[in-house]
Structures are given as structure tokens and as C-alpha cells.
């Protein structure tokens, strides 16, 4: 079992860096027989995708040549997909990033919120996953991924765009986001973790359009207990034949957060454990899904993100 921590902040000493270090240490303590590595955009040169589509072509030689016993041997589904034969023409550190991602049985993403989404450096890395799109990796069984969202808090627009961006890019690389943990406002600038993360519900794939909401109908927006809710106004007849406007609010009506959401029910984290080498069909265990060292003071490194 090999876990990869993808640290998506351009700051090497911010809140998310502290959390990434804590998770790295937790991986070693809880699963000493498993492999773990950190890929950080703050120390990695990854230039933006230029949209040339050169990675569509199938090369004669693989992007990496491995020797027996290499700790970063590609995961079985990656090797079978032919992803190693889709090269990017940009010569930077992305090839090394791909080597770590290809070896990952589980992926842990630690990312700060920049205007409701990911930092530019992290977006560049995600866009450079384009070579995987031209393989069948996205159609194969997915490896699990978890997102740890970090921030000082205060943005009323939340961070659902961040989830969608990471989720979409990782999907073509063969990962499925199974869990989002909300650390916003729970890590101080000095690195001290002041509260447990809360599980954040995964938005529907495809956004609110996937729920079948028809925005051509008449809707009004009302604020209810700190959340903004879309309500449909329909015309319906009463017993006397007269019509009146009635609110139609199905039980599964989607809510748009505008301030703070009600905290999700806390659930016991699954126990640590490996599902065996190169098998990642389930949610798995280990520190990516738990709350190891959540009260432990950080290493004192500051930063707003």
C-alpha cells in the first residue's frame, strides 16, 4: 500500500503545510509497513498546460523505466491503461509528479481555499493531468482520494468550486473523491489545530443541474436559518377552483450555502488497515480518513493559508 499526499499550497509554511506534515507523520505511525510520499506544489516546478494536445499521441517508449523493487512502481490499473505512453512535451517536474500519482493506492489532497477554489499553482498541476484523458484510465476502477480543505474562513461563497475542480481532474487520473474534510477556521496561523475537521457532504456530480432542477421555471430565493434555499412557485387549484401560489419544496431540495452550514453528523473514522497490495476498490483506512493528532500543536510555522 502506498499513499501520496498532494499538498496544493504555494506556501511552504502555511496552515495546509502543517496539516500535510501531521498527516505524513500519522501515516508513518499508524501504517509503518506502508509507503507514503508528499508532493508539494511549493517545491515543484509545474508550468501551465498549453492545450497543444501533443499528449494525445501514443509514444513508443514509456515515460518512466522502472526496476524491480522500485518503491514507486505504477499501480496495476495505471500500467494496464497505457498512461505511461502518453507524454507531455513540457519539460519540468510534472513527470516526477506523475510517477508518484501512478504509484498511489490512495491519494490525500491537502489544499487551501483561494476565492472558493484552488491556488493557481495547484490548478496548473491539475490541468497537466490531461495526458491521462487520452487513456482509458478514467473508465477503470477508481482509487480512493480524500480532500482536506484548509483556510482561515470568512468567505461566504464556500469552497464547492474547489471540490469540483479537484474531483474532475483526479477522475481522469483514476481517482474518485470519497471524502471531504473541512478544516476551514480550525487551524491557527501558528499551525495549532484547534478543532476536529468536519465531514463535508460531496456535491452532486455535474452540479445542481444533475438534480433535475429546471431553472426555466419560476423560482424565488429565500433565506432560512443561515442558508439560502431555492423554492419553486407553482400554481395549484384549491377546492373552490381558485388558484393560489404555493411553495413546492421536495425533501431533497438542494440548498445553497451563503453563510454557515449546519455541521454534518460526526462519524467514527474507519479503522486503519490495508486492503492488500495494489487493491483500492473500497474507501480504505489509515490516517487519511481519521483525526490523528488533531489536538497536537503544529510546528509553529505561520501563514494565512
Description:
A hairpin with a 2-residue loop joins β7 and β8. The chain has 305 residues and is of the alpha/beta class. Helix content is 19%, strand content 21%. The chain is built from six helices and ten strands. The strands form two sheets. It has a six-stranded mixed β-sheet, sandwiched between helices. The chain is globular and about 50 Å long.
Helix-residue proportion:
10-25%
Low-confidence stretches: 226-267, 269-284, 290-305
User: What proportion of the residues form beta strands (DSSP E)?
Assistant: 15-25%
Q: Order the strands across the largest sheet as they lie in space.
A: 2-1-3-4-5-6
Number of helices: 6
Q: What's the rounded overall pLDDT mean?
A: 75
Distance between the termini: 30 Å
Task: Name the helix and strand elements from N-terminus to C-terminus, one letter apiece.
Answer: EHEHHEHHEHEEEEEE
Task: Give the CA-based shape.
Answer: globular
Number of strands: 10
Instruction: Using the CA coordinates, give the radius of gyration.
Output: 22 Å
Largest sheet: 6 strands, mixed
Category from helices, strands and their pairing: alpha/beta
For the structure shown, list the relevant keywords.
disordered C terminus, 305 residues, six-stranded mixed beta sheet, alpha/beta, globular, 21% strand
Short description:
This protein is of the alpha/beta class and 305 residues long. It contains 6 helices and 10 strands, in the order βαβααβααβαββββββ.
Amino acid at each position: 500500500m502506498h499513499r501520496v499526499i498532494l499538498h496544493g499550497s504555494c506556501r511552504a509554511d502555511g496552515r495546509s503545510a502543517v496539516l500535510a506534515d501531521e498527516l505524513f507523520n500519522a501515516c508513518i505511525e499508524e501504517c509503518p509497513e506502508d509507503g507514503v510520499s508528499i508532493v508539494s506544489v511549493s517545491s515543484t516546478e509545474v508550468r501551465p498546460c498549453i492545450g497543444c494536445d501533443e499528449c494525445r499521441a501514443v509514444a513508443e517508449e514509456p515515460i518512466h523505466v522502472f526496476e524491480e523493487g522500485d518503491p514507486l512502481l505504477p499501480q496495476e490499473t495505471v500500467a494496464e491503461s497505457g498512461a505511461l505512453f502518453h507524454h507531455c512535451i513540457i519539460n519540468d517536474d510534472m513527470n516526477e509528479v506523475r510517477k508518484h500519482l501512478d504509484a498511489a493506492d490512495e491519494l490525500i489532497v491537502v489544499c487551501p481555499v483561494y476565492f472558493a477554489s484552488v491556488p493557481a499553482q495547484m490548478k496548473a498541476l491539475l490541468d497537466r493531468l490531461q495526458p491521462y484523458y487520452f487513456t482509458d484510465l478514467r473508465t477503470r476502477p477508481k482509487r480512493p482520494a480524500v480532500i482536506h480543505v484548509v483556510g482561515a474562513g470568512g468567505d461566504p461563497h464556500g469552497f464547492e468550486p474547489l471540490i469540483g475542480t479537484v474531483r474532475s481532474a483526479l477522475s481522469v487520473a483514476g481517482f474518485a473523491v470519497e471524502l471531504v474534510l473541512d478544516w476551514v477556521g480550525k487551524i491557527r496561523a501558528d499551525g495549532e489545530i484547534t478543532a476536529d475537521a468536519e465531514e463535508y457532504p460531496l456535491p452532486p456530480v455535474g452540479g445542481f443541474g444533475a438534480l433535475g432542477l429546471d431553472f426555466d421555471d419560476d423560482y424565488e430565493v429565500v433565506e432560512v436559518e443561515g442558508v439560502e434555499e431555492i423554492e419553486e412557485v407553482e400554481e395549484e387549484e384549491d377546492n373552490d377552483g381558485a388558484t393560489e401560489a404555493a411553495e413546492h419544496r421536495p425533501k431533497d431540495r438542494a440548498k445553497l450555502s451563503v453563510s454557515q452550514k449546519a455541521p454534518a453528523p460526526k462519524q467514527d473514522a474507519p479503522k486503519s488497515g490495508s486492503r492488500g497490495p495494489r487493491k483500492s476498490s473500497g474507501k480504505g483506512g489509515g490516517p487519511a480518513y481519521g483525526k490523528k493528532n488533531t489536538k497536537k500543536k503544529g510546528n509553529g510555522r505561520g501563514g494565512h493559508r
